[in-house]
Amino acid sequence: MTELYFSHPDRPPAKIQPLKAWRHFRKLIANKEDTEQVFHIIAALSGSKFGKMALKFWQTPKGRALLESNERLIDMLDDHDSIKKLPEGTVGRAYVAFMEREGLSAAGLEAEYAQFRTTYPVFGDVVERYGDRLRDTHDMLHILTGYGRDALGEQCVLGFTYAQNHNLGVGFIAYAGGLELKYRVTKSAPIMKAVHEGYRIGKAAKNIAQEDIAALLREPLADARKRLGITEPKTYHAAHAAMRSEGIDPYNLLAATA
């Protein structure tokens, strides 16, 4: 059996490359659907905290078992037929409805990541497996938090994620993206407050990546939010209301303000 390293001996030390992150951020702003740029930014600003979070999870009995098993969450999350057999109101049913409405799949996000990985080596270590787990649960965060896939909703989800997993690249996208939106829309919309609200909600909540995802899918959504400590994003809704009051569609604001 091949030894599973926490961090492969050939993995280079995490380092910060701000200029590289900025170049990829400008590409992301030009096309928010270009998910590959997100992975480049995260890699450029990886730092040491992400590895520390992975180690913390690895050192728990549940975390070690999940990461040693190399469980493919993608296979579970994209099995919509099985998830649709769950009762109405569960996390799983809400997740499938969201993914099908938005035309998304967990495998699609993995494919975006694969394009990014063509310029980076594959190590197959625990750090990599933990990163895969964070990637594969990203869209579930929209369901659990109540944030939509509008431009502000994405920044708020990233604020939530940054609070939970301390990846500097994610935090950079959340706040820099929020600033980009702030200067494009009405000043009455509390854009940055909404992004920081996402951070505060994420900081107060249980870490989603450390949850038993199969069990979470079966849980009633309202109960899951309460158990996980995820509160309603009131400032986000206030920002939407402010935009709509001035004739701006929050779900098409980048096109409207281009």
Describe this structure in words.
The protein has helices spanning 18-30, 36-44, 49-58, 61-69, 73-77, 80-83, 91-102, 106-117, 126-136, 138-145, 151-165, 168-182, 191-204, 213-218, 221-228, 234-245, 253-257. The protein is mainly α and 258 residues long. The N and C termini lie far apart (55 Å).
Gist of the model:
The chain has helices at 18-30, 36-44, 49-58, 61-69, 73-77, 80-83, 91-102, 106-117, 126-136, 138-145, 151-165, 168-182, 191-204, 213-218, 221-228, 234-245, 253-257.
Point out poorly predicted stretches: none
Globular, elongated, flat, extended or rod-shaped: what is the shape?
Answer: globular
Rg from Cα: 18 Å
Let me know the largest β-sheet.
none
Series of H and E elements:
HHHHHHHHHHHHHHHHH
- Strand fraction equals under 5%
Task: Tell me the number of strands.
Answer: 0
- Could you say which structural class the secondary elements and strand pairing correspond to? mainly alpha
Mean pLDDT: 90
What count of helical segments does DSSP give?
A: 17
Q: How far is it from the N-terminal to the C-terminal residue, by CA?
A: 55 Å
The share of residues in helices is 55-70%
Looking at this protein, list some descriptive labels:
17 helices; mainly alpha; 65% helix; 258 residues
